[in-house]
């Protein structure tokens, strides 16, 4: 039942309408509305009695976000997210805990990512305002920074270890295949900001070479890419070095999570190969499936296609493989050379597009040089060195130098360019390299199809990276932080957001509902709680009614499957 209470702030008295309920045996404010000062209330009542308001009463209605945030909050409770953070990062004094701040920030990253300065407005429009013990006024950017500042790099590792252990146990995650990979995210951190050492210029995987980038290494399950481990590192570090730098911590996490599991296989790609990395994996209590750089194993690429055995009967159409045993990084391994028709077509199309570009560029350059020879043109006169430099830049891309033969000579004081496309080299690429992948593993008893399926599971981690780069969901970038410590905490909240969304997607899948992050959150966001406040001249306080927005059949199914009625105020 609603009641009116007063608060004294800065020497002034303000009145609020609020509703209290017992939550977990303790009284808690579940709804609150500001009424104003005493003079405001008297003026409003006087106007109503004077006939300004209709005799039948005034009604005011508004909606709050329910469907998108309630299931995520429920997952946070099952994982004990706030409690775990508070145990690792205890906070003295009054005010909401560090765990409470990060819980709100994490759910926000899942459904409506925004800056910390805007999060209070979003929070007030959701049911979190009656589920979480915090007020919008406490959700300022300064308060967030103060609480984020308490979370060290060591604390992040400890929190993540406890969270992932609980996720594995609570949701019975399948650890038979776990996937490791790394990516990077561009930032808009100023070049002259020397307080941030983690954002470096390097090879941006999104082609933003002019911007400073931050690296992210991630270990996820093949079971709906639930994150199990992450590392935030300087953006100028390559994949091999990254794997080497996190190997001990990564394998320690694998050992912790796989305790009791019969067979755990780590899957990684060729960018992580090195002698040290493979030796570390060899000594760990788990198996692996990886890939090799094809150009380093020319003898395997020239194996006749007739020796390949089709995998179509094993559920992998368009693929065939030949199995061998080879010494790889000092150990005898099962090696599988796999040919994929779809990969051949995709790689050929990509290469033909790049070949076409360079053919056009070279034709245009020949025409330009001929124009100079016929009549002097405007601009700087071309030189042999300048033409060489330009052509070397064009042919620097993979396979281009192998496919194009260009020669620049000097004639009559001007460069003379001749070039040809090597058809034999193109045919050799199609016959020996394109469409082929070389896999290696210590799972010697696995069938060819099982090895291929394990490696192809990497699409899960690639999907996780795409989700984290989605501007409408998680949105790791743009980062509104510019110190190493804040960047690490921001990345951590995004990784936890990925965990929540992956677990939610997994729960729905187990109930026969298969949908993407974006479709899932869009459907859930349409489920809202409707509040109608009715003023009556006969009552001093308004009457509140609660309802749900109209739902489609698909939304109703989600509502029922997730048990969202627990978080409504409809009796």
List unreliable stretches of 5+ residues. 45-56
Q: Which structural class is indicated by helix and strand composition? A: alpha+beta
Count of alpha and pi helical runs = 20
- Measured by DSSP, the beta-strand proportion falls in 15-25%
Termini separation (Å)?
Answer: 13 Å
Helix content: 40-55%
> What order do the strands of the largest sheet run in, or round the barrel if closed?
7-6-5-8-9-15-12-11-10
Please compute the radius of gyration using only Cα atoms. Answer: 31 Å
Which descriptor suits the 3D outline?
globular
Mean pLDDT: 85
Structural write-up:
By secondary structure, the protein is α+β, with helices and mostly antiparallel strands. Among the domains are: 1-58, no CATH class; 287-457, no CATH class. 42% of the residues lie in helices and 23% in strands. The protein has 20 helices and 17 strands. The strands form 4 sheets. Strands 7-6-5-8-9-15-12-11-10 form a 9-stranded mixed sheet, with helices on both faces. Helix 2 (70-79) crosses helix 18. The chain starts with a strand and ends in a 10-residue tail after the last helix.
Features:
alpha+beta, nine-stranded mixed sheet, three-stranded antiparallel sheet, 20 helices, 42% helix
Quick overview:
By secondary structure, the chain is α+β, with helices and mostly antiparallel strands. The protein is built from 20 helices and 17 strands.
Write the layout of secondary structure elements.
Blueprint: E1 2-9, E2 12-23, E3 26-36, H1 38-49, E4 58-65, H2 70-79, H3 81-88, H4 98-111, H5 119-124, H6 128-131, H7 141-148, H8 153-171, E5 177-186, E6 213-221, E7 227-234, H9 239-257, E8 265-267, H10 275-283, E9 287-292, H11 298-301, E10 309-310, E11 319-328, E12 331-340, H12 341-374, H13 384-394, H14 400-403, E13 404-411, E14 414-421, H15 423-433, E15 436-441, H16 448-456, H17 459-468, H18 484-510, H19 517-525, E16 528-535, E17 543-548, H20 553-561
């Amino acid at each position: 039942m609603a009641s009116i209470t007063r608060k004294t702030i800065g020497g002034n008295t303000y009145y609020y309408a609020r509703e209290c309920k017992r939550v977990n045996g303790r009284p808690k404010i579940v709804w609150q509305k500001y009424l104003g000062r005493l003079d405001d209330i008297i003026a409003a009542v006087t106007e109503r009695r004077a006939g300004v308001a209709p005799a039948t009463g005034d009604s005011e209605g508004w909606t709050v976000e329910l469907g998108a945030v309630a299931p995520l909050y429920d997952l946070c409770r099952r994982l004990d997210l706030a409690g775990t953070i508070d145990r690792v990062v205890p906070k003295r004094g009054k005010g909401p805990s560090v765990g409470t701040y990060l819980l709100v920030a994490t759910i926000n990253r899942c459904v409506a990512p925004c800056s910390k300065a805007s999060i209070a407005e979003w929070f007030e429009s959701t049911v979190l305002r009656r589920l979480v013990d915090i007020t919008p006024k406490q959700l300022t950017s300064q308060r967030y920074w103060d609480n984020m500042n308490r979370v060290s790099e060591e604390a992040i590792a400890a929190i993540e270890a406890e969270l992932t252990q609980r996720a594995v146990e609570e949701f019975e995650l399948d650890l038979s295949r776990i996937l490791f990979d790394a990516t990077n995210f561009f930032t808009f951190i100023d070049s002259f900001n020397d307080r941030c050492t983690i954002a470096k210029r390097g090879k941006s995987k999104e082609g933003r070479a002019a911007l400073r980038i931050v690296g992210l290494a991630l270990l996820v399950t093949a079971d709906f890419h639930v994150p199990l481990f992450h590392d935030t590192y300087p953006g100028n570090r390559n994949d091999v070095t990254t794997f080497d730098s996190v190997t001990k911590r990564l394998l320690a996490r694998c050992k912790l999570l796989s305790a009791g599991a019969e067979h755990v296989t780590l899957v990684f790609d060729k960018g992580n190969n090195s002698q040290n990395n493979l030796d570390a994996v060899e000594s760990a209590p788990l198996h692996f499936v990886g890939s090799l750089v094809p150009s380093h194993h020319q003898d395997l690429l020239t194996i006749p296609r007739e020796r390949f055995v089709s995998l179509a009967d094993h559920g992998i159409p368009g693929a065939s493989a030949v199995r061998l045993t080879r010494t790889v990084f000092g150990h005898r391994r099962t090696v599988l050379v796999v040919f994929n028709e779809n990969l051949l077509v995709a790689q050929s199309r990509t290469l033909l597009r790049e070949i076409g570009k360079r053919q056009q560029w070279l034709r245009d350059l020949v025409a330009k040089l001929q124009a100079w020879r016929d009549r002097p043109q405007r601009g700087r006169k071309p030189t042999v060195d300048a033409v060489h430099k330009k052509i070397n830049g064009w042919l620097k891309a993979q396979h281009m130098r192998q496919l194009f033969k260009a020669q620049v000579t000097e004639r009559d004081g001007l460069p003379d360019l001749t070039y040809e496309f090597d058809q034999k080299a193109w045919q050799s690429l199609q016959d020996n390299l394109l469409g082929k992948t070389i896999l290696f593993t210590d799972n010697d008893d696995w069938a060819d199809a099982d090895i291929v399926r394990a490696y192809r599971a990497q699409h899960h981690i690639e999907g996780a990276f795409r989700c984290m780069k989605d501007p409408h969901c998680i949105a790791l970038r743009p980062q509104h932080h510019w110190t190493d410590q804040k960047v690490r905490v921001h990345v951590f909240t995004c990784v936890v957001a990925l965990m929540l969304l992956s677990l939610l997607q997994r729960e729905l899948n187990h109930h026969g509902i298969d949908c993407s992050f974006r479709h899932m959150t869009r459907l859930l966001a349409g489920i809202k709680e409707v509040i109608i406040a009715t003023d009556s001249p006969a009552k001093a306080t308004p009457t509140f009614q609660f309802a749900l927005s109209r739902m489609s059949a698909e939304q109703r199914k989600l509502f029922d499957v997730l048990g969202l009625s627990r978080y409504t105020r409809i009796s």
